[in-house]
TrEMBL record, chain A:
One of its GO terms (molecular function) is lyase activity. NCBIfam families: hisF. Belongs to the HisA/HisF family. It holds the Pfam family His_biosynth. It comes from Gramella jeungdoensis. Pathway: Amino-acid biosynthesis; L-histidine biosynthesis; L-histidine from 5-phospho-alpha-D-ribose 1-diphosphate: step 5/9. This is Imidazole glycerol phosphate synthase subunit HisF.
TrEMBL record, chain B:
GO terms for molecular function: lyase activity. Pathway: Amino-acid biosynthesis; L-histidine biosynthesis; L-histidine from 5-phospho-alpha-D-ribose 1-diphosphate: step 5/9. Heterodimer of HisH and HisF. This is Imidazole glycerol phosphate synthase subunit HisH. It comes from Gramella jeungdoensis.
Amino acid sequence: MLTKRIIPCLDIKNGRTVKGVNFVDLRDAGDPVELAAAYAEEGADELVFLDISATEEKRKTLAKLVLDVAEQLNIPFTVGGGISSVEDVDILLKNGADKVSINSSAVKRPDLINKLSEKFGSQCVVVAIDAKNIDGKWKVHLVGGKVPTDLDLFEWAKEVEQRGAGEILFTSMDHDGTKNGFANEALARLSDELNIPIIASGGAGNIQHFQDTFQKGKADAALAASVFHFKEIEIWELKRKLRSAGIPMRI
Amino acid sequence: MKIVIIDYGAGNIQSIKFAIQRLGFEAVLSNNGEEIKSADKVIFPGVGEAGSAMRMLKSTGLDSLIPELKQPVLGICLGMQLMCNHSEEGDTQGLGIFDAEVKRFDSKVKVPQIGWNQITNLETHLFDKVEDGEYVYLVHSYYVPECEDEIARTEYGVNYSTALHRNNFYGVQFHPEKSSKTGEQILKNFLKLDLRS
C-alpha cells in the first residue's frame, strides 16, 4: 500500500541551514548534508530544501549544495526557492535533485509549469502555493505570503494540475507558525478536486495534527520544519503512532 | 568490476552514480557502444517521457545495442518501461526485451503515484535479503500490468509488476538509488549477480 509521507523542510541560506537545530551527535548543525543524512536515518520519507538566500551567488551555491546532498542522501529530495527558469531546473536535476518546487515564478509565468513538465516530466514539478483565507475566500499570496494576489486557491490549483504539475505543496499562511494544526478543510477540498498528490504544510504542532491532516485533510504527505528541528516531535515516534492509528507509514 | 550507466540524455543519472559510489564501486556514464558492451554490469536509467527517450536511444543506435547485451542489465523506472514491447505513453514501440505492455494508471487513483510502496512476491537473487513487503520509492504515471516476467509486485489501485526479469535483463519500476537501505540492498544484489547462478 502506498504510504503517507513525512517531509522535514530545511531552510537554506548561502549553502547552510538556518533556524536553530539541535540534533544531537551532529558536529555542525548548520551543515545541510549532515542534517539531511540524520533525517534520512530517522525515517524521513523525503526532504525539502528551501533556499531563502538572496545573493547573486545563490545559483552556484545551490547547485553545489544539491550535488553534495545527492552524493550522501539515499532518499528523494526537492529543492525550492527562487527557481524561475528551465535552465535553473536543468542544473538542479542534473546535480541530483529529484524534484523542484516553484512558487512565485509559476504565478508570474504559468507557462513555466508546462515547459518544465514537458521537458523533465510532471513527476519532478512541485508547485508550491501559499494562501490565506480572506473573508471566507482562499487567496494565493506571493513572496513567502507577503504579497496578495486575486487568484483563488482552488482555481489556481486546478490550473496548475492542468499545466502539468506533479504535486502541490499547499501552505496555509493562516496556520503557518501557529502550531495549531494544518488547514484540513482546504486540504480535503484540494484532494477531492484534484487528481495529483497534495502535500500539507503549515501548522504542525503535535502528532495529532499529522493524524488529522492525513485523515480529515486527506493529504498525501505532510511537511514541517520547526517541530522536527527542535526535536519536539521525533520522526520515528510520529510514524509509529500514525501507523497504529491506521495510517499507512513506512517504518 | 566495470559498471556502465547508459547516458542517453534522459533524466537524473547522477543519483545512480552516487548510490553505486556509496556501495564502494565506481560507475562510468557512457553512450558509447563499445564501452557499454565491455561492462560487467549495465544500468539503463530513464526519467521523463517514453517517446522522446526512445527517440534519443534511436538517434545513438542504442535501441539495437541494448537488447543484444549479454551481461546483467538493470533498467530503472522509464528504463524498465522502454525494455517492454510497447508503451501507451506517446504510443511508443519499446525494445521488446520483456513481453509486456505499459499502461497508464486509471484516474481512480492519484497520478503520478509518488512515494513509498511495498514490493511483494519477490523472486530471483535481485531480492536476496529483502523481505516481502519492504518499501521502495516510486514516481510514475505508467505501469506494467501483471505479466510472465514479473519478479516483484506492487498494489496501487491494481496489482502490477514492479520488477521484471528475463535472461540477463532485469527491470525495476522503483528507484533503488532513492529507496534507502532496501534500495541499497537491491543495487548491491544486482552488482553481485552472476549469470551462472
